[in-house]
Specification:
The structure holds three protein chains of three kinds.
Chain A lengths: L2 H30 L7 H19 L2 H25 L4 H24 L22 H4 L5 H9 L4 H19 L1 H11 L1 H6 L4 H27 L11 H11 L4 H18 L2 H8 L5 H16 L21
Helix pairs in contact in A: 1-6, 1-7, 1-10, 1-11, 1-12, 2-3, 2-4, 2-10, 2-11, 3-4, 3-10, 7-8, 7-12, 8-10, 11-12, 11-14, 12-14
Chain B lengths: L5 H26 L4 H13 L2 H26 L7 H18 L5 H30 L3 H24 L21 H5 L15 H18 L1 H11 L1 H6 L4 H18 L1 H9 L10 H11 L4 H24 L5 H16 L1 H19 L6
Helix pairs in contact in B: 1-15, 1-16, 2-3, 2-14, 3-8, 3-11, 3-13, 3-14, 4-5, 4-6, 4-11, 4-12, 4-13, 5-6, 5-11, 8-9, 8-14, 9-11, 13-14, 13-15, 14-15, 15-16
Chain C lengths: L2 H10 L8 E10 L2 E11 L4 E6 L5 H8 L7 E6 L2 E2 L5 H6 L2 E4 L11 H6 L8 H19 L14 H14 L4 E5 L7 H16 L3 E6 L2 H7 L2 E6 L2 E7 L5 H9 L17 E11 L5 E11 L3 E5 L6 H9 L5 E6 L2 E2 L9 H6 L2 E4 L3 H5 L6 H5 L10 E2 L2 E2 L1 H14 L16 H13 L5 E5 L7 H16 L3 E5 L3 H7 L2 E6 L2 E7 L5 H8 L11 H12 L7
Parallel strand pairs in C: 3-8, 3-9, 6-7, 7-8, 13-20, 13-21, 16-19, 19-20
Antiparallel strand pairs in C: 1-2, 1-4, 4-5, 9-10, 11-12, 11-14, 14-15, 17-18, 21-22
Classes of the chains: A mainly alpha, B mainly alpha, C alpha/beta.
């Protein structure tokens, strides 16, 4: 495998890891606050549709992004009402949200565009284009460093850089601010937060809302940056891979980055069977590679390789008790 | 005393949830510019207006009975088996293996053999997450989700690389031999002089599903194993005290659950498609969640709500055929049913409890305890 | 605390001053249950006010209302002479109220410091808040003798320390009123004494303290005034100096109470249960039982005294078959399996061991199951309860009806779910199930926890009656009074070991209290420091040395 192939592979790793990273951080906020969220998939899907739809209708990708975030927030609010206000089963609520998004996106797409559940292809301006970082063109011809900078580091859409910046930001918020302390506390022992005079409901809604915003960006990235338009079920299980990455990352922000990059790499390799064959000298079935993140998650969850301990109050609705 | 009488708990709460789901669905239909009343009429005539429609409704209902029961038995052990889809896929593989590689002399024997293989593979696919939960503490919801994806990848691999006949393009097995063709309702009813549509796919598997409902009812409410499963579901600590092994119950409940989900394949793979294709389950494993929730995990409730969902499925298909409402409307309805009967249960229950409490207070003057 | 100083304090708290707390006509119902009925109470500043009552009398509900945890249906709260609305804990904290709950509200994997600042950080950024809190903590530690390691993780420190963190949390929020809900439940007598010294010091600094308890001794020892609650109502408020334990007990239950159990001297027979060198190691590798030797004979009640968490539960779990042990247990000379397939509740029952577990709601009963289903619980494989491969539900219901009649379970309805019975009646259902099996050995854990006094007498009588039939009984209770009243022989457990055995009629609370703190040579006087050192061992990291 030559250097340029490697750069290309890593470049597509970053592209594929971005939605996973955003969704993974989204899940991190929610689950750290004690709200399990298996509805990441649905929120991404809804956001993918609405951002593509609004971008197509207005020709403005930023309006699309806002619409995507808004739609994801609506589903987050639903999850909040079900699991925080009405203390319902968080897992069941997540399942419902996934189906709701899967059905509604096609229904509305059909109603708006009559193209069999997809949006029209997005033109330039209605998409997030790659950004050329300063100096990228200038040093592109320098051996090694040039392609590294020009191809791998430069040239991504703004959303990719936002996702990467979200990692240290999340870390700082979680471990250096009052909000972070309370958020972590409410996922471990909500009664401690409640008796300390802080609203459990408020904190959890805040966490769920942040989760909605991040999922919204992830979804918008899918339909307006990674691809040019919405197609039915385009999230394609990414929400669940993000969930897997979250467990893999043991609910920590920096680990989340590495986990999603790893899973992004698997995705990149899936499209380049020639690279794997060259690297390990045998053919690997694409389907098996696609299943690898799921398999690895099962193995991690089973504690065969390091134990992942979820937030202690996760999944349990908070009921006041003496 | 319980706040609500039993009938309200069993009938009223799910009914109100269903009405809410229906109401919102109607609003959705309105919003996309169609007439909900006409849509319902179309669904009713399409799904129940002919033996052809009934044949499809009951065919879908058969699938949902299996997957609904699968989710329900796991719920009794307080396990959320979200992996019915993957278990049903593996069941399909079991049916295909049984039908393709064993020369069955008669369909009845083939049915037994295929059901066994389907149940076995489904059970294995559920037993691994169960074991991981019981012994390693992995969350069964996450593991079963992962196993759905792994099952899809595995099936894809097997169909593309192993079971696809030479020269065939689409990833599917060869057609099953005629000997394993299951009698349809038409075949079963015509000797009795009842005319039933020849084209509809409902088949003898329906009877197996109904028998499974009854069998599961006996198991849950009348057998010692069912008693132990329910006890464990209510309180793990108490189960341990009584000498009921959590590992054993988790394994058994999930094995029964996986076997039921897998056995769905005798209907869709053996009874209808007569070969194994990639997406044979069509989400029936997930619909089982809605069916079990609406049926309150009771086999009779599962039976009724499976038929309701069968109606929705067939009606939805008719809608997609005759109007511009896509089939995904059913997915929305399914989501709403799960939402209201599952996640927003308290939203429906709490006001009702207040009503009943007020009624009781009015009836009995003085302290209610 | 002598009565003299108490009276002085009453006088210094001038009658002209407004009460620190005044509740007027508080009522609260949970669904059909009236937890508090028209309760009024006045607490003067700088005093310790006790609230005593049985479990379920409504004490905790009342205090939770004061702390904004629940909202009262009716009534007013006045703080320092001002009418105050307390809709949530935030408002309570703002009004200067701090509460130490029975079950601590701490984040286990946070440090002490993080727990203390949670909700009272004082700024958006964490680091300056932590630095400020560290300084304040040192001051508070010096002022009140409340030393803790601010950087220790809460999950690594003992219960006594965790309680201090809770008190510090309240003081850090500048609470002037401190409510403590059953604070001594998890403490040894010596630890409790130490807590009371801290409370005394807080009182002398002008803090107002409300102490909720069901233990008469604590009321008599430390409080200035006491209110008695019964079934949601406040039956009396008196000066502690003017009352006596029997009077309080009578006020609590509404009639004269038999504090002692009527029983004939035991006639011990053969050894039924013989435990030799029993050890238990839990999932985390901590040694919970460290070599127990104990015998129980036919026709005697052996009581296990000890502070909760010193291995009593593990002992019952091993004997009941749901925890693995290492060592030897002989039942009528036959060894019991302590690990593997046959170490479970089913085979223990087959051996003739019946078990009334410590926590009936979590272990003894399935709260959602009806009474008849619970009567079969653990015995559901019994041939009488079977017809073919199915269960004989009609037979179980008939049997349950009979048992309910014999044990006076009210209401005698086999189809009522367990959760709808009162604590005492729930316990009677368990007891009926276990005693009527005619076991050789009965294990009884906390038989009267959360049980009303009328039922306590009945339950005690049943246990003694079983003894008089020549059965062996092993009793575990954290209530020393109960141990003393019921047992023929008493073994004291501390840190997974038996510290000593005493004949019930030749010992007293004081001697047992020292044993419970791990001090075996009870004849010699001991310094507080020595006891404290031992206690740190009992609750703290010492367990992790394995």
């Amino acid at each position: 495998m030559d250097y340029i192939t490697l750069i290309q592979l890593l470049d597509s790793t970053v592209r594929l890891a971005t939605p996973l990273l955003l969704a993974c951080l989204a899940g991190l906020f929610s689950e750290r606050a004690g709200i399990f969220d298996i509805g990441l998939e649905g929120k991404m899907l809804a956001a993918a549709f609405f951002s593509a739809a609004i971008a197509a209708l207005t020709g403005n990708v930023w309006l699309g992004l806002i619409a995507g975030i808004a739609s994801s927030l609506v589903l987050s609010a639903l999850h909040g009402v079900a699991s925080i206000t009405f203390r319902g089963n968080q897992l069941i609520s997540g399942v419902a949200i996934n189906f709701l998004a899967a059905g509604m996106t096609v229904l509305i797409a059909q109603s708006w565009f009559q193209q069999g559940g997809r949006t029209p292809s997005l033109m330039a301006g209605a998409r997030f284009e790659g950004i050329t970082l300063p100096g990228a063109d200038a040093i592109a011809d320098v051996p090694y460093i040039g392609p590294l900078y020009a191809e791998l580091i430069s040239g991504h859409s703004i959303l990719v850089y936002m996702a990467l910046a979200a990692v240290p930001l999340t870390w700082w918020l979680l471990y250096r601010t009052r909000f972070g302390l309370r958020l972590r506390a409410v996922g471990e022992n909500p009664a401690a937060v409640d008796t300390a005079g802080v609203s459990v409901v408020g904190l959890r809604y805040a966490a769920v809302a942040i989760c909605g915003v991040l999922c919204g960006i992830a979804g918008a990235y899918l339909s307006t940056a990674l691809q040019a338009g919405f197609v039915k079920d385009m999230s394609a299980g990414r929400g669940f891979i993000a969930l897997a990455a979250l467990i893999f990352a043991k609910w920590r922000p920096w680990y989340a980055l590495w986990a999603t990059l790893l899973f992004g790499l698997f995705g990149a390799l899936e499209t380049r069977p020639d690279v794997i064959e060259a690297a390990i000298g045998m053919k690997v079935q694409g389907q098996l590679l696609g299943a690898l993140p799921y398999l690895m998650t099962v193995i991690i969850l089973a504690g065969f390789v390091g134990k992942a301990i979820p937030p202690r109050a996760g999944g349990e609705p908070y009921v006041k008790e003496r | 005393m319980d706040v609500m009488p039993k009938w309200a708990e069993v009938v009223l709460v799910p009914l109100i949830s269903l009405l809410l789901a229906a109401l919102i669905s109607a609003l959705v239909i309105l919003a996309i510019g169609e007439d909900p009343i006409a849509a319902v009429k179309l669904m009713v005539t399409g799904a129940l207006g002919s033996t052809y429609g009934w044949g499809y409704t009951l065919y879908y209902a058969t699938n949902f009975m299996f997957t609904g029961l699968a989710v329900a038995i796991a719920f009794h052990a307080r396990l959320f088996n979200i992996g019915g889809e993957g278990q049903a896929m593996l069941g399909g593989l079991g049916v295909a293996i049984a039908c393709l590689y064993i020369p069955w002399p008669h369909w009845s024997l083939a049915l037994i053999g295929a059901a066994f293989m389907a149940g076995l593979l489904g059970a294995i696919w559920a037993a691994i997450p169960a074991w991981l939960q019981a012994k390693r503490g992995s969350h069964i919801v996450i593991t079963t989700i992962m196993f759905n994806f792994i099952a899809a990848a595995l099936l894809n691999y097997v169909l593309v690389n192993l079971m696809r006949p030479k020269g065939q393009m689409d990833p599917a097995t060869a057609r099953f031999p005629d000997a394993v063709h299951l009698p349809t309702l038409h075949d079963l009813l015509s000797p009795l002089g009842i005319a039933f549509s020849k084209a509809a796919p409902a088949n003898v598997s329906l009877l197996v599903a109904v028998a499974a409902c009854f069998g599961l009812w006996l198991l849950i409410w009348r057998s010692r194993l069912g008693y132990e499963i329910r006890a464990y579901g209510h309180s793990e600590s108490a189960a341990k005290y009584a000498g009921i092994s959590p590992v054993k119950i988790t394994m058994i409940a999930m094995i029964i659950s996986g076997a039921l989900a897998g056995m769905m394949a005798i209907n869709n793979v053996m009874g209808e498609a007569e070969r194994l294709v990639l997406n044979s389950t069509e989400g029936a494993g997930f619909i089982g969640i809605a069916v079990a929730l609406m049926g309150r995990s009771h086999p009779l409730g599962v039976f009724i709500s499976a038929i309701l969902f069968g109606f929705l499925y067939q009606g939805g298909a008719e809608l997609a055929l005759w109007t511009s409402i896509p089939r995904e409307l059913i997915v929305v309805i399914q989501a709403l049913v799960i939402l209201f009967t599952g996640a927003l249960d308290n939203m429906v229950r709490m006001p009702l409890e207040k009503v009943f409490l007020a009624l009781r207070k009015r009836k009995a003057a003085g302290p209610a305890t | 605390m002598t009565n003299n100083t108490t009276q002085e304090r009453q006088e210094t708290a001038a009658p002209t001053a407004a009460p620190a707390i005044e509740l007027k006509g508080i009522s609260k119902a949970f669904g059909p249950v009236q937890a508090n009925k028209d309760i009024s109470i006045r607490v003067m500043p700088g005093t310790i006010h006790g609230i005593i009552g049985e479990n379920g009398a409504g004490k905790s509900t009342l205090m939770s209302i004061l702390y904004g945890f629940y909202k009262a249906d009716k009534g007013e709260i006045w703080i320092d002479g001002k009418k105050t609305e307390i809709p949530d804990s935030q408002a309570a904290i703002a009004a200067g109220i701090g509460m130490v709950f029975q079950h601590f509200k701490l984040v286990e994997n946070f440090t002490v410091l993080e727990n203390i600042i949670l909700g009272a950080e004082g700024g958006r950024m964490l680091r300056p808040s932590l630095a400020k809190a560290r300084a304040t903590l040192i001051e508070l530690a010096n002022d009140y003798g409340l030393n803790v390691d601010p950087d220790a993780l809460v999950e690594d420190i003992g219960v006594g320390m965790q309680q201090r963190v809770e008190i510090l949390k309240a003081l850090y929020r500048q609470a002037d009123i401190l409510i403590l809900d059953e604070p001594t439940g998890v403490l040894t007598p010596a630890e409790a004494d130490q807590l009371f010294r801290i409370l005394g010091r807080l009182r002398s600094e002008g803090k107002t303290i409300i102490l909720i308890t069901h233990k008469l001794r604590e009321i008599m020892d430390i409080t200035d005034t006491v209110s008695v609650m019964r079934r949601g109502e406040m039956t009396a408020t008196v000066k502690t100096a003017d009352t006596s334990p029997p009077e309080l007990a009578e006020l609590m239950v509404g009639r004269k109470v038999l504090l002692r159990v009527d029983k004939k001297p035991a006639i011990p027979g053969d050894v039924i249960l013989d435990i030799q060198g029993l050890r238990v190691v839990d999932d985390n590798g901590v040694e919970r039982l460290r070599g127990i030797d104990l015998q129980v004979r036919a026709g005697e009640i052996v009581g296990i005294a000890g502070v909760a968490g010193n291995g009593q539960s593990e002992l019952l779990e091993v004997l009941g078959g749901y925890a693995n042990g290492i060592g030897t247990i002989l039942l009528k000379g036959q060894p019991l399996e302590l690990a593997g397939k046959h170490a479970d509740g089913q085979s223990r029952r087959a051996h003739g061991i019946a078990h009334v577990p410590e926590d009936r709601q979590r272990e003894g009963l399935i709260m959602e199951f009806q009474a008849w289903e619970n009567t079969a619980f653990g015995y559901h494989h019994d041939t009488d309860y079977r017809s073919g491969i199915l269960m004989n539900n009609a037979a179980i219901r008939a049997d349950t009806a009979e048992k309910m009649a014999r044990f006076d379970v009210r209401p005698p309805n086999p189809r009522l779910a367990a959760k709808n019975f009162s604590g005492g009646n729930q316990q009677k259902i368990v007891l009926a199930r276990e005693i009527e099996r005619n076991p050789d050995l009965l294990l009884v854990g906390q038989p009267t926890r959360g049980v009303d006094i009328g039922a306590i007498e009945f339950i005690h009588q049943q246990i003694v009656a079983l003894r008089d039939q020549g059965k062996a009984i092993l009793l575990v209770s954290v209530e020393l009074e109960e141990i003393l009243a019921l047992s023929d022989r008493i073994a004291v457990m501390f840190d997974g070991q038996i510290m000593g055995e005493r004949a019930a009629d030749q010992t007293d609370e004081k001697e047992l209290g020292l044993l419970m703190a791990g001090i075996t040579d009870t004849d010699h006087p001991h310094s507080i420091a020595e006891i404290e050192a031992n206690l740190a061992h009992a609750h703290g990291d010492a367990h992790k040395e394995v």
